[in-house]
Amino acid sequence: MTAAATPQRTGLVTRLSGGMLLAMALVLAGVLAAALSAIILTKSQTAEIERLRATESRLLSTLEEGGLSGLSQKLDALDTGLLDRTEPVLIAVWRLRNGRLTPHRFSPAEAEGILAAVAPGHDTDVRINGQSYRVLSPDIARLSQDWSTPMSDVVLTIAAPDPGSDMRAARQTVIAVWSGLAVALAVGVLLHLNHTRRYRDGLLEINARLERAAAGETGLRMPDDVPAPELRELTDRLNRVLPRFDDLVLGLRDLSATMAHEMKTPLQVIRSDLSRLVRAEDTGTRSARAAAIDRTIDLANARLHSIMQLFRLEAQVDIPMQPAVDLSRIVENAADDLGEILEARGRTVTWSIAPKVRVAGNPQLLDLLVSNLLTNAGKYAPDGARIEIDLSQEGGRFRLSVANSGGGFPEDVRKSAFERFARGRSNEDIPGTGIGLSLVNAIVKRHGFVASITPSDSRAEVVITGTGAGTEPA
To answer: Is the pTM of this model over 0.85?
Structure first.
């Protein structure tokens, strides 16, 4: 069963650090704040100029309709329809006489002290007594050419403080925007520095513990109170993985010790047989010793294979599973193969196998399971015992039973029969791996089945039960 590969995220954002993302966000916020400030200031300035132009237009209309006297009367009356009272406007009217400008009317009165210092006749911006003014001076001589009464001797000057109330309010708004941005910048930098410190401290702690685990300190776990919340998922995963590493390391140690122990006896037997083979004087004796060595090598090889299978299963290595394996055929083949060997050694083999019993599983492991059950039954059955094999299915569940009539499992053996390398007294002329029912139990667990031993004093029975994959008609 092959796990799907995890897609690698290679987007630009995933490759940027938190500090870089923060810097980019702040730059973007600065650009947006600058654009917003420019828009606010430009609109406010445009609104003030338009308001001053509107006042100029109303003054020119009054001058055209009522002449200089009509304009003077309205200025004296501070006509609200003529002037924009939301903003202080300074107005001065001049008369051109003998080539010289003489003051005619100022509104309000204090405008005389300001506009007297302004040379009328053109638009300009001036600064008087520390205050800036925007000044308009329309060309009445040109504009009045089409009036009923031309007024080439009248000069009109209009001024307003610069900045006005709109611009001052806009500047306050801009200051508030940039102040808020500065506060956000300070808070963001402080949060980032604090997060970076906590993240760094958490990683340093995790790395230190991983180094200790790599040095052989088993049982070590990651801290539950890492300072950075983002690291808690990592520590949780590591705490789920580290016990598996401990199990694998202990399993490898156990495997090494077990293999050394299991191979010790076969090697001693081979050495003894080789010594006898060398000393043998006739061909028949040498052939018998060579055959004995060959059988011992086969037995050792079978033991190694079974031990590797057992540790592979206990290490939870991925094993390919098929949805519908014909368990009936596997049991039939195993009964045929081992039946002749068992019967040749004085055991009677009988079986009752329901057809087409299918289960989800690995065919090779299921074959190994059945073979080990039959071999184990033959090894521990006395001469003349009957070995019974039964496979049935009912209600979507199957039941596989392998038993011998040579007496039940002793209670102490029954309790430890499924443990790794548990042994009982056996008939050594029956080939087997010598690892008891532990391999059978490991295969059963990987398939989700259940293994049990029937308590009995007259027969030793091992039963495997589980969910079937359906039964086809015979």
So the answer is: no
